[in-house]
Specification:
By secondary structure, the protein is α/β, with parallel strands linked by helices. About 15% of the residues lie in helices and about 20% in strands. The longest helix is centred in the first third of the chain and has 11 residues, at about 1-10.
């Protein structure tokens, strides 16, 4: 199913549609990372040229409508440095919002309760979103719903992998 979505995205995204400088507005926003699609759907946003891995060469600047960047973001996809190849975004187990607040981080699907090996959705949001969740003591559950962190559950920083009992509250409220 995931690969069918990728094929649909590649077919829908006009990779060369904005290569002509005359079609890019002078006031187009240029983001250092892949745009996060926040803002008006018909706004043209550009991604700055990206460096190729293990090279000093950079790829082309890519521009597109916010709704096109949204399609990539919500499906956990990104554009490679060459500006045409659609790649998977790296998945993180517990995003905390570190790094550029406008950059998008995707959380790995979490197992759903019940019989079988069913997993919830992959959640892709901005680092600002993840940082606000941590600050407000909230989390995204396995179904993709934002919920408060249960009072009995300590912050993730208090877990100790050397002592499994460390980090749990003992006693009253």
């Amino acid at each position: 199913m995931r690969y069918a979505v990728v094929g649909a995205l590649v077919a829908l995204l006009p990779m060369n549609g904005y290569a002509v400088t005359g079609t890019i507005p002078a006031d187009a926003v240029i983001m250092p990372d892949t745009p996060n699609a926040k803002g008006a759907a018909n706004t043209i946003v550009c991604r700055a040229p990206q460096k190729f891995a293990d090279s000093d060469k950079v790829g082309p600047k890519r521009c597109g409508y916010n709704w096109e960047w949204w399609q990539l973001t919500t499906h956990g996809k990104d554009l490679a440095a060459d500006g045409t190849t659609v790649i998977d975004r790296p998945l993180v187990k517990n995003p905390k919002g570190d790094g550029n607040p406008d950059a998008v981080t995707c959380r790995k699907p979490k197992p759903l309760s019940g019989i079988g090996l069913n997993y919830g959705p992959e959640i892709c949001e901005t680092n600002q979103f993840w940082a606000e969740l941590v600050k407000d003591r909230k989390m995204v559950d396995a179904n993709g719903v934002v919920v408060p962190v249960p009072r009995w559950m300590p912050p993730i920083e208090t877990y100790s992998y050397s002592d499994p009992g460390a980090g749990y509250y003992v006693g009253g409220p």
